[in-house]
């Protein structure tokens, strides 16, 4: 029997139609090559009459005819003994292609077999995989589609993969020297350890995915990828805002987009969620306990975990009422730019926003600084700029002016890059600030905190919050004193 279904979890648009074939104890999934309207297809699955109505449409009639032809073709292939193992899936794919294209030409057969064989090449397998996660035909976990953020990570990895890897490289060619050279390749680009690890992880996953699909039989390729140790000195400064700073931000007199950005940021603070979640909050995410306490309930986009956040500050409702629970959509890129502008304005009246923090430059910033130094040297030597150099020098000179000279980025006496607090604030700062301040209250256990933030492990959570050793000691001391006072009161009674 052949069953037809969609892998995509989208509710609108088009998606490729798949068929599940069961014969002789084997189960195979094959893409038909036909795309159907998701809404119409899902509507047709609700009942027999709905399917009959669907089959009366032009699109439905096409799908019905395909079903008949596929079942007939599959039956014939099994009857002729051409399908013996799962590796014979390519024969079914060939037959499917012939049905869809309406031909049985030799070129179609050769093409399908060539495509299957090509996946042993690293580049070709990546392109097959990336195409699948982009159109939703390849999912992960419990048939859930890859998030836009994850797809972007794979897209970026693909750019470096094409630059590093020759098209003729197969998974059989991957060994420890190959993996080490990839890491060195990323290091030469000036990437920080976190970025290097992210791309190494993608390569490791690619090898594992290819192995799972039978295109990588090199066990060594699964073991040679090692993450770099991320030192504190390799990390950008991870700051958080105090309750007083959040209060000052909330009280600012703002208009236009700056006001909207501030309001969404503050909502993110009280929700302790990522921008992809707190920027999308709607009325259905707000609920009320039997005892009258409100809560925010949502399924995190990144992790798929459902979290419940108690609402303990009335300003949450003030913000929601202000926008009638329909917060304007603003891209995260614009959010990051605008929130820096807001906090730069706030820094004029709140000195703590001007405090300098040691941080590191991004790879782009390092290259900009190196380029500016070379151009300054060239100018000092009286050598004429090319047109492109002239444009870059003009752009970087303006940045240097804002930074009060060269180098482009301010440094302390130890040569470390330093920046004022307001320049380090981004959309994610709201989540880290909310989680850190809630943790510092000392009223919730780590498990209770994680039920709000959605962190899966104790270690990740403890690394996430910005609480130093002295603050930890103070919190422990406060709990001990509270326990002693409670005991003393009990004795006195």
- Could you give the distance between the termini? 78 Å
Q: Can you list the strand order of the major beta sheet?
A: 1-2-3
- Write down the overall geometry: globular
Q: Which architecture of the largest domain would the CATH scheme give at its second level? A: Orthogonal Bundle
Low-confidence stretches: 103-107
Question: DSSP strand (E) fraction?
Answer: 5-15%
Q: CATH topology of the largest domain, anyone?
A: hpI Integrase, Chain A
User: What count of domains describes the coordinates?
Assistant: 3
Instruction: Work out the radius of gyration.
Output: 29 Å
Helix content: 40-55%
Provide a concise account of the structure shown.
This protein is mainly α.
List the helices and strands and how they pair.
Elements: E1 2-6, E2 14-23, E3 26-37, H1 38-44, H2 48-55, H3 58-79, H4 89-101, H5 106-118, H6 122-135, H7 148-164, H8 176-188, H9 193-212, H10 243-250, H11 256-271, H12 275-278, E4 286-288, E5 294-299, E6 306-310, H13 315-322, H14 332-346, E7 356-359, H15 363-380, H16 387-402, E8 417-420, H17 429-440, H18 446-453, H19 458-464, H20 469-492
Antiparallel strand pairs: 1-2, 2-3, 4-5, 5-6, 7-8
Helix pairs in contact: 1-2, 2-3, 3-4, 4-5, 6-7, 7-9, 11-14, 11-17, 15-16
């Amino acid at each position: 029997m052949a069953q037809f279904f969609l892998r995509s979890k989208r509710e609108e648009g088009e998606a490729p139609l798949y068929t599940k074939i069961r014969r002789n104890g084997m189960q195979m999934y094959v893409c038909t090559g036909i795309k159907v309207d998701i809404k119409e297809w899902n509507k047709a699955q609700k009942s027999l009459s709905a399917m009959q109505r669907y089959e009366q449409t032009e699109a439905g009639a096409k799908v019905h005819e395909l079903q008949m032809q596929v079942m007939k073709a599959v039956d014939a292939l099994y009857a002729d003994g051409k399908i013996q193992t799962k590796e014979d899936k390519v024969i079914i794919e060939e037959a499917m292609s012939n049905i869809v294209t309406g031909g049985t030409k030799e070129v179609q057969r050769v093409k399908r077999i060539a495509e299957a064989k090509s996946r042993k090449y690293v580049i070709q397998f990546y392109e097959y995989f990336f195409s699948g996660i982009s159109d939703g035909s390849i999912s992960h976990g419990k048939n859930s589609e890859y998030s836009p953020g994850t797809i972007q990570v794979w897209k970026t990895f693909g750019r470096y993969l094409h630059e590093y890897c020759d098209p003729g490289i197969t998974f059989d060619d991957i060994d420890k020297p190959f993996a080490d050279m990839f890491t060195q390749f990323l290091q030469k680009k000036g990437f920080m350890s976190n970025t290097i690890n992210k791309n190494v992880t993608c390569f490791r996953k690619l090898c594992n995915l290819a192995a799972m699909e039978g295109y990588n039989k090199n066990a060594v390729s699964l073991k040679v990828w090692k993450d770099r140790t991320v030192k504190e000195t390799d990390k950008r400064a991870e700051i958080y805002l105090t309750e007083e700073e959040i209060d000052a931000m909330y009280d600012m007199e703002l208009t236009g987009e700056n006001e909207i950005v501030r309001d969404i940021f503050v909502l993110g603070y009280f929700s302790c969620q990522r921008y992809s979640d707190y920027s999308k909050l709607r009325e259905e995410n707000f609920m009320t306990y039997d005892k009258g306490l409100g809560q925010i309930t949502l399924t995190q986009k990144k992790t798929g975990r459902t979290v419940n956040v108690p609402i303990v500050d009335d300003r949450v409702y003030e913000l929601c009422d202000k926008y009638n629970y329909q917060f304007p959509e603003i891209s995260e890129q614009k959010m990051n730019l605008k929130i820096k502008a807001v906090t730069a304005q706030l820094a004029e009246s709140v000195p703590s926003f001007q405090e300098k923090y040691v941080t590191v430059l991004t790879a782009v910033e390092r290259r900009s600084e190196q380029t500016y130094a070379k151009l300054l040297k060239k100018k000092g030597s009286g050598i004429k700029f090319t047109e492109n150099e002239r444009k870059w020098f003009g752009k970087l000179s303006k940045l240097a002016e804002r930074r009060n000279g060269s180098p482009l980025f301010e440094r302390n006496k130890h040569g470390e890059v330093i920046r004022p607090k307001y320049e380090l604030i981004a959309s994610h700062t709201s989540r880290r600030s909310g989680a850190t301040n809630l943790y510092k209250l000392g009223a919730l256990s780590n498990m209770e905190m994680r039920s709000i933030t959605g962190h899966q492990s104790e270690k990740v959570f403890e690394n996430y919050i910005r609480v130093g050793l002295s603050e930890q000691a103070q919190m422990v001391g406060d709990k001990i004193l509270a326990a002693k006072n409670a005991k003393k009161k009990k004795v006195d009674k």
